[in-house]
Design brief:
Number of strands of chain A: 2
Strand content of chain A: under 5%
Strand order of the largest sheet of chain B: 1-2
Number of helices of chain B: 8
Helix content of chain A: 55-70%
Distance between the termini of chain A: 52 Å
Number of domains of chain A: 1
Number of helices of chain A: 10
Radius of gyration of chain B: 17 Å
Largest interface: A-B, 72 and 64 residues
Oligomer: heterodimer
Strand order of the largest sheet of chain A: 1-2
Largest sheet of chain B: 2 strands, antiparallel
Radius of gyration of chain A: 24 Å
Order of helices and strands of chain A: HHHHEEHHHHHH
Shape of chain A: flat
Chain lengths: ~270, ~190
Amino acid sequence: MSAFQSPVLGQYIPTGSVLHRLDPRTKLLFVFGYMFVVFLAQDALAYLFLTVIAAGGVWLSRIPLPMIFRGLKPILWLIALTALLHLGFTKGGDLLLQWGPVTVYEEGVRQAGWMSLRFLLLVVMGTLLTLTTSPIDLTDGLERLLKPLEKLRVPAHELALMMSIALRFLPALWEETEKIIKAQQARGADFETGNLFQRAKSYIPVIIPLFVSAFRRAEELALAMEARCYRGGKGRTRIRQLQFAPRDWGMLVLLAGLTGVLLWLRLNT
Amino acid sequence: MSQGVLSVRNLIVAAMFAALVAIGGRIAIPLPPVPITLQTLFVMMAGSILGARWGAVSMSIFVLLAAFGAPVLAQGQGGLAALFGPTGGYILSWPVAAFLIGWFTEKRAPRLSVAYLTAVHVIFGVLLVYAAGVTWLSFVTGMGWNAAFAAGALPFIPGDLVKTAVAAIVALRVYRVYPMIRKATPVKSQKNQ
């Protein structure tokens, strides 16, 4: 299982570009803002702005296009399917094409085009965020972004800590799982035959030891943290400080500008 | 989350469960027509082993991890694209499912049976999740309800029903040796002690 070999990295591809060096908070805010703004777009001009920004992001990230395409692949056929459904079933406007029972209307073509483009933009921006930012950076960024919400009892620090723990233990637990499966096979466990229920049931001797192991690790980690006087995020200092650079402010201004333009276009057309 | 010592342990176990759900996505039983992963098995157990609150926390962590591009979804997928893609509805409903499963498990806590747990798993781990998933699928792709149901639920239902029973058996055994759920004795919140 190769994908777990670098689970901390996930989809992250370090190229050291400007986008990589942006503060993770900026990137989170920008992408989430963008995802809402996309739904304001209704006409060609608005989509043009959105596309230019997404394309600019791809260009700035210096990530090879095939890599980005690889992230999109699972979604592409669905975009195609959605487009086809709209082509076939949306009625309205002039009849453009009739071929047997298949009819294509003007409105259908327009809907199919805009829907696919909107979907594609969302996916590209999401992929770009995870390609240019490591999960650890994102976790850090999220913690800092949620910090003001701690007054409302949102446990920002705990959330970030739990995400780091889960990422940290993924490879260890996966290794453990493989080991347990092999051990049970050596004892004659059979995972390959029988009906659905028998096969699912044959995994019980894998799941139970896995739980025992996971609980034991949790127990050990809890003990270790308590021994080091861990008592939550309050008053904790960190070795890596996030800092806003001018380029971060630039991105936020760009987002505000984009939102303004799209709102204006929406209200005036 | 201000209970100190006890919550550190719960916090870590909940994080572990988020990791276990990711691992469940990797264990696939190759069966026609669709291979079955153990992912939803662990989702149901997150509810019935951790209880409502921590089950929901643990699954929310999982969703956040997926959003941040960690390869935690089935077949090593991850990222916002996968989460807000057509099959995102299932994953986004997991925190709610785990919460409700946990809530109904806690209600019966000392007197649990495999039959009761299976029923809870079926209602919230299968019916609820599919309702959310199919609605999302049909909304995102613009498919009709029947098409969405045929594509997004029907092939998986037999496998999921089997998993509810397996999850109930395992959850009960884990509960016997390692009860995370204690009968909810209302602990008064102690402020400024």
